[in-house]
Amino acid sequence: MKFSKRAMQVTPSATVKVSNTAKAMIRKGIDVINLGIGEPDFPTPKIIADAAIDAIRSGKTSFYTPASGLPQLKEAIAERIKQDYGVVYPADQISVTNGAKMALYVLMQVLVDDGTEVLLPRPSWVSYRQQVNLAGGKPVIVETGTDFKITTQSLDTAVTKNAKVLVINSPQNPTGTVYSRDELAAIGQWAVLHNVTLIADDIYGKLVYNQNQFVSLVQISDEVAASTVLVNGVSKAYSMTGWRIGYLAGAPELIGKVNSILSHSTGNPATVSQYAAIAALQSDQSAVETMREAFEQRLNQIYPLVQQIPGFKLAAKPQGAFYLFPNVEAAVDLAGLNDSGELVDQLLAKAHVAVVDGAAFGMPGYLRLSYATSLEDLVTAVERITEFMNQFLEKQVSGGIGIETN
Ligand SMILES: Cc1ncc(COP(=O)(O)O)c(C=O)c1O
Fold it and tell me: Which residue, 102, 281, 319, 402, is the most exposed by fewest CB within 10 angstroms?
């Protein structure tokens, strides 16, 4: 069998892979703590699950819906965007997709031609790059500073005449970075000036901590909003990763193209999940706040502990999402390893903790640790990693060589 060039260049998602390996070890009875995972550990709130059960029982879920989603769900999304952002999108400027991942995939199909350049911050989420490649485009990396943020200066350095799209993900996976209104305004104006379409991946928008504020690109100005496609979904905020409901909102012509592709590819997202999503978006939002507070508490407890792991260096405290992204170059050296990928393997095999190599996000020398797991497991995981690293520290001390650990 001969495979297409597209299929030959695509690699499996590193985050999904590490999570699957950890889950397989757990199934074999090995006590692995999985910090590789990119999904909340809470069950979907009961009110949402009950709405799905009611929809099944009342016979509403046996049939196709429009490929771009139920009109009632589009209305619920429009209302939620209006309430959360103060921005109005008519329901026909919204498409419902199988998770935000599919929204982003279809967008690349709609916006990217052979050779189109898509500006992606380094680091950024694993799938953007692959989705750009699958659309025939060229990912162009925009460098960030120690705060993991791009600026108009780094954009000026990266941009070429073929650059047509820029993806902004705030709060950001894998760093937890949140862009301020001023920073987004500068980036938004830059994009308008350069005729670059912005994709605002707001999937972690509800998960912001310690009085930090989330702002979306679509809130900056009418001009910036008109150049932006908004991507969001229910996965992270409502603990609904398995239900696969995401959405995008943008200009009518763009939505028309997206809907045509959806009608020939996924068809509609599962009807039952769409009814669940209506309940999620319309019901009392207190469950979202309860989960947000739990993540905040975990971040506040775990951040200082991770800072103390020998060889782990954390930049400023993350403001959102549920990830820590320490630099581990000193830990790699201390353990006598070649790179952060080897450290990931060692931590899984020896300390029984699963984490993701920063290389998957374009940044080798870093690890992504998810705190979407119980505080108890988090503390144990950090103890295990610390113990694993301490053995090398002890060897160095007994050998008389000092090391700066933080
Ligand atoms: C930055 C980012 N965007 C989009 C997604 C996709 O989310 P979903 O397809 O579950 O809605 C994820 C999931 O990990 C993510 O981290």
Answer: 402
Q: Which of 168, 173, 175, 356 to mutate to test the pocket of ligand 1 (most atoms within 8 A of CB)?
A: 173
Q: Are 366 and 326 in contact (CB under 8 A)?
A: yes
pLDDT digits (tens, 9 = 90+) for 303-348: 999 999 999 999 899 999 999 999 999 999 999 999 999 999 999 9
pLDDT in tens, 8-42: 988 877 777 788 888 889 899 999 999 998 899 99
pLDDT of residue 406: 47
Of the candidate CATH numbers 3.40.640.10, 3.30.70.20, 3.90.1260.10, 1.10.390.10, the domain formed by 63-282 belongs to 3.40.640.10
Peptide bond between residue 71 and the one before it cis (omega within 30 degrees of 0): no
Running DSSP on this structure, what letter comes out for residue 300? H
Compute CA distances 36 → 113, 174, 291, 354, 369, whole Å: 33, 11, 19, 5, 6
Please determine, for residue 286, whether its predicted confidence score (pLDDT) is greater than 80: yes
Topology of the domain comprising 5-43+287-392 = Aspartate Aminotransferase, domain 1 (3.90.1150)
Residue 159 tokens, joined? 């941009």
> Is residue 49 pLDDT above 80, yes or no?
yes
Q: Taking the domains of the chain in order of start, what are their residue ranges?
A: 5-43+287-392, 63-282
pLDDT for position 404: 47
CA-nearest of 362, 406, 345 to 36 is 345
Among candidate residues 119, 103, 131, 130, the one with its CA nearest the CA of residue 231: 103
Nearest residue (by CA) to ligand 1, atom 16, is 173
If you measure from the C-alpha of residue 203 to the centroid of ligand 1, how many angstroms do you get, rounded to a whole number? Answer: 6
